[in-house]
Structures are given as structure tokens and as C-alpha cells.
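STRUCTURE:
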């Protein structure tokens, strides 16, 4: 079983705290290229140093900013691999899936189904509310965005999945000896990590319903499917296709996307609809395709540490 693979008697919870500190340190190291570039522009070229995260996001050309931000996740992924291998003496496969090898068909299926939904829903929003969008497409900047996104965004989304649905899921299971607590805690922390996103300031805390709900959905499909493959595919599609399709002045990333949303941000159907309707439909589709059973035991059952 997936969640039990990290549950060994020598894997005390303090190791997960230490491992999390190491991963945070790796993240800080990954931010050095951004810091060095900011300091260079400030001291050499005389630009005023940005006073907020929002100002940092607008300081450089959007593709260059995206590249600098995404580089930090390469360091995070390396930190995860080192922590799993040398602190917990596990393989990276053991925090990925319970299968003998990673099921790439699952990743691709999840990616395609969410990519298709994202594309169709975006086009429908554009069709019914054309005044809320402007065409933002420029061939060369978009091609560069696509290259950066295809290479680095899956690393970003995968590192987040390995932290929340892999590493911390197993860590909280070791602490609580059940499955509902890891599911709940990773979902709350995942949602809380988005608190400082500019979307929260513009739309309000209600958008945390979407972030926490998404974390809960990803946790459920991980536990039910005994592996992270579906979560990896979904998260990659969500961030990559989103970055390529739509940007706005108030979103976390400014990109050379196809569309730009110029509407006033508000908590509408795009916040509530996925959590209460779309995610349950996806759960139904996944459950039928992969023959999920015994939901109560897999999501709330007790576990034994070996």
C-alpha cells in the first residue's frame, strides 16, 4: 500500500520535520539566482529594488521571471531526492507509487483529461464573455514561454506533489497511524501555502476553498489509486495549460499567454464549480477506469507501522 511504504519504525516524525527544513533550505538556495539578478539590476543598472512580491513578479520580462522562479523548484526536487534517499533510506519510487514502476499511462491520462477540460472551459468563458478577455498572443514570446513551461513547470508541480502527496502524506501517517489525518493535514497545508498568492488579496480568502479543495482532491486520488501518478498528471496540466492559455494583472504569474483576463477578479463559478461539481465527476471517472473500491478504508482506515 502506498501510504504505508514510508511507515517504518526508524522513520520517526522528527525526521520529517528535519527533512522539511532541509527542503526549505534547498528552496532558499534555489532563489539565489533570482536574488543575484535583482541585486545586479539594482546596483549595476540603477533600478529601484522591488518592495513587494508583486513588484518582483513585474520587475523582469515575464518569461525571464518565470524562468528564475521555476529554477528554485529544481533545487527543491533535488532536496526531496536527497532527503528521501539519505535521511529516510527510501527510494523515490516508494514516495511515488505502490506499483513496481511509475505508471506513465496514468500520468498521461490524468494530464489529458484535465488539459482538455481547461482548454474547453477557457474557450467557453471567452465565447460567452469576450469583453473579459483580450488576445495576448505574440508568437516568439509564446514559443519561449512554451519551452520554459514544458521543461520547468512539470518539475514545479511534481516537486509540490512529492512534498504534499508523497513525503508529508507518509510523514503524517507515521505520526497519526491513520489515513484521514494525513489527507486532511496535507490538504490544509497545501491550501495555506497559497495564502500569499496575489489572487487571495484580489478575490479574498474565499479562494482558499478552491486551493484546499484541490489539495483534498489530489490527496483522495493518491490514496484511492495507491500512488501519485494521477495527481502528478493533473497538477502538471493545471499549471502548464493555465500558464499557456490565460494570464492577468492579478495572477501569481504574468505570462505571454494566448489570452489576458481583464475582468475584475471575483469569487464566482470558477472558484466553487471545480470543488463541488468537477472534482466529484473526475473522481467518478477515475474510480470507474481504475476500479476503486473500499473507499472508507483507503481514506480513513488505521495503519500499522512495520
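SEQUENCE:
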Amino acid at each position: 500500500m502506498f501510504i504505508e511504504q514510508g511507515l517504518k519504525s526508524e522513520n520517526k516524525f522528527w525526521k520529517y520535520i528535519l527533512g522539511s527544513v532541509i527542503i526549505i533550505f534547498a528552496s532558499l538556495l534555489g532563489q539565489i539566482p533570482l536574488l543575484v539578478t535583482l541585486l545586479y539590476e539594482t546596483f549595476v543598472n540603477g533600478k529601484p529594488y522591488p518592495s513587494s512580491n508583486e513588484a518582483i513578479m513585474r520587475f523582469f520580462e515575464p518569461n525571464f521571471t518565470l524562468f528564475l522562479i521555476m529554477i528554485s523548484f529544481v533545487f527543491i526536487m533535488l532536496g526531496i531526492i536527497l532527503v528521501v534517499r539519505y535521511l529516510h533510506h527510501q527510494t523515490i519510487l516508494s514516495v511515488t507509487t505502490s506499483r513496481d514502476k511509475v505508471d506513465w499511462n496514468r500520468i498521461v491520462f490524468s494530464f489529458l483529461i484535465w488539459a482538455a477540460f481547461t482548454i474547453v472551459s477557457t474557450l467557453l468563458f471567452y465565447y460567452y464573455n469576450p469583453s473579459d478577455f483580450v488576445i495576448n498572443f505574440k508568437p516568439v514570446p509564446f514559443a519561449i514561454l512554451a519551452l520554459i513551461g514544458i521543461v520547468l513547470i512539470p518539475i514545479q508541480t511534481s516537486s509540490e506533489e512529492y512534498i504534499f502527496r508523497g513525503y508529508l502524506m507518509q510523514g503524517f501517517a507515521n505520526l497519526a497511524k491513520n489515513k484521514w489525518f494525513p489527507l486532511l493535514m496535507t490538504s490544509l497545508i497545501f491550501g495555506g501555502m497559497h495564502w500569499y498568492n496575489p489572487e487571495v488579496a484580489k478575490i479574498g480568502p474565499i479562494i482558499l476553498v478552491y486551493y484546499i479543495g484541490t489539495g483534498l482532491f489530489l490527496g483522495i486520488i493518491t490514496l484511492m489509486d495507491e500512488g501519485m501518478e494521477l495527481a502528478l498528471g493533473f497538477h502538471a496540466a493545471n499549471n502548464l495549460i493555465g500558464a499557456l492559455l490565460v494570464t492577468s494583472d492579478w495572477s501569481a504569474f504574468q505570462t505571454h499567454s494566448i489570452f489576458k483576463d481583464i475582468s475584475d477578479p471575483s469569487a464566482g463559478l470558477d472558484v466553487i464549480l471545480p470543488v463541488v461539481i468537477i472534482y466529484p465527476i473526475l473522481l467518478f471517472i477515475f474510480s470507474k477506469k481504475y476500479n476503486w473500491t473500499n473507499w472508507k478504508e483507503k481514506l480513513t482506515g488505521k495503519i500499522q507501522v512495520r
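REMARK: The radius of gyration is 20 Å.
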